Amino acid sequence: QVQLVESGGGLVQAGGSLRLSCAASGRTFSSYSMGWFRQAPEKEREFVAAINWNGGSTVYADSVKGRFTISRNNAKNMGYLQMNSLKPEDTAVYYCAADASRAVLPSRAQLSYDYWGQGTQVTVSS
Q1: CA angle 108, 111, 115 (to 5 degrees)
Q2: Residue 104 CB burial class (10 angstroms; 0-12, 13-18, ≥19)
């Protein structure tokens, strides 16, 4: 079992930055891919970014490419999402997730992820 807890959300002006953290419990987290997803009000949850178990492979949604950076520190059982140049359309609840399949490449598909955090709110004002 892996438990995930997100933190770092908040209110920021457009153009600003936030760094989200995902704290994981369980010794197996270091062998799992990790992803970030988000859900805006009245919209479906969508993929943001993902990273494989050793950080050697990352994928991003087109909407955040060049602005967001996903990373992880397996020694600390932590995952991160650095968000720069934030836009009002980035406003959403952000979730981290872990994929226990031990796939070589990280997945964009929500169904691939077995464990989810409770989410953290990010609000970007214009």
Answers
A1: 95
A2: exposed
User: What residues contact 44, with CB distance under 8 A and at least 6 apart?
Assistant: none
The full length of the chain comes to 126
- Cα 17 to Cα 86: distance, rounded to the nearest angstrom: 6
Identity at 110, one-letter amino acid code: Q
Question: Residue 108 CB: number of other CB atoms within 10 A?
Answer: 16
**3-state DSSP of the chain:** CCEEEEECCEEEECCCCEEEEEEEECHHHHHCEEEEEEECCCCCCEEEEEECCCCCCEEECCCCCCCEEEEEEHHHCEEEEEECCCCHHHCEEEEEEEECCCCCCCCCCHHHCCEECCCEEEEEEC
Residue range 36-74, pLDDT digits in tens: 999 999 999 999 999 999 999 999 999 999 999 999 999
Report the C-alpha gap between 62 and 71 in whole angstroms: 17
Which two structure tokens, joined as six digits, stand for 50?
């993902």
The predicted pLDDT at position 49 comes to 98
